[in-house]
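Progress report, Aim 2. The chain analyzed during this reporting quarter is listed below.
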Amino acid sequence: MWTLSTGMCELLNSFREVDEEIIPILQVVEIVLQRDSQTGVKRFRLKLSDGVSTTMALCNDHVGDDVFNNIIESGCIIQIDEFIATEARNGQAIMVLTSTSLVSPPISRIDSTMQVGSAVRTKHNSNSRRQQQQQQEVTLLSEILQNIDETAGNKYTIKGTITNRSDLKYWASSDTGCYFWFDIIDSSLATIRGVLFRDAAQTWTELLTRNETYLMTNCFVKNDNAHGPGLHFSRNSQFTKVSERVDIPVQISTIGEIESRQEGTYVNMVGVVQKVLHVDMVRTRATGEEIAKRVIVLSDQTGIVEVTLWGQIATSCELQTKQVLLGKQLKVHRFSGRTSLSYVRNSCMTILPETDPVAKNLINWSNNGGTDMPDPPLEPQISFTGLKELGTGFEGRLFGTITDIKSNSIIYKGCSRCRKKMNSPQCEKCGDTAPRWYFIADVIVVDNSSVKESLVLYDQAICQITGLTADQVSTAPSPLQELKHSILNKQIDFNARRTVEGLQCTRINEVMK
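Predicted structure tokens for the chain:
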């Protein structure tokens, strides 16, 4: 006779080990269909009961197809042949079902004393695999990268921290083809990008979290001429979250010491978050594509510095003022005598807990007025002609008056997550289905020498100058006239980059009137 696996849900919910000889037999008591708010993809979650307690399980594509085709229904009894027990982003336990068998069609909800079956496991579950993973030899990323010609194509087990990751992305030509990438750093301070595709991507996208450390098995090295070396993972790959952090040796530089560091070198630093500026969009010189940019201002007892974040790390940043931030492998930049830092591919940021001795020292200093210091000094202003003489690609601090708007279209409907222009209900880049209005305008500015230039202003810059949002302007009878009324004759102190077409605004420093 068969019985429900009493106590199985409690074991899963508490992350305790499950006897590898027992196949979980549970009853489906509820089926939840949910749509990913970012991608619009539908996925099934099952509420499972062992007769005493319940747990939630996420279905991969194969099990999800059984739910969609009514093979698995609410009330039925299922045998879980293979599963992954892991931790979701919110810290709760979650089981990912990868293979199931139907034991009984739908019946009334039962308790643990009702007989419905028994079994002996013929396959190892994820917990036995976890023990095997822990025993495998871990290879350092530095060893893999130093011998890339020999390591390409080989499979490895690594332990590293995920410093950055993308959302689940879908190819425009396919409804099912998807992937997401993530950057890994290990104790050798080497970094590499990992990629998951299709079923593996859908299984792990909700479970892999930035700034967490994982033991990763069955990953193989691929050396792509276009993108460089990377790690690829398949449906057989496993990720086990480990409690210990990767021991990354860090030599901390004070902000005052960064001033003497050579441009292009990398530094590790700790500072109190003094400001978190809004996300702005700029065009890259290499491809001409728009990319998100955000500046944060950090300070310590020796000075103050700006750190520029790019791409998804800029849009997903949830830093707050007065937090203490540890930045690793930040790149030093210097322009017009002004030093700043940039978050690049091999960078990593961690918010230090208040109990950390370094953080505690900075918090005490900050609370006693330590952060009441002026912003980093602005570089000297130059004329439009002076920036033009420097050449395409150079950036400088300028001053001018907005005299006209060249473009007739000054707002567009774009993705609320990645800002890409949307011509259909779903964003082609990230799958988001919640558009909003954004500004983009080509204006004429005149400097004190009466030299005219074309200047591209993006959403955040126009919001700063006018105090209006694109959503507000979109409801006006004539959005163009509404913007002209608010922006013309405004004098602005701004930073801009020289392009072939003209100037591209990168920051508004001050609006005079």
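The chain has a mean pLDDT of 79. The CA atoms of residues 155 and 220 lie 4 Å apart. These observations will guide the mutagenesis work planned for the next reporting period.
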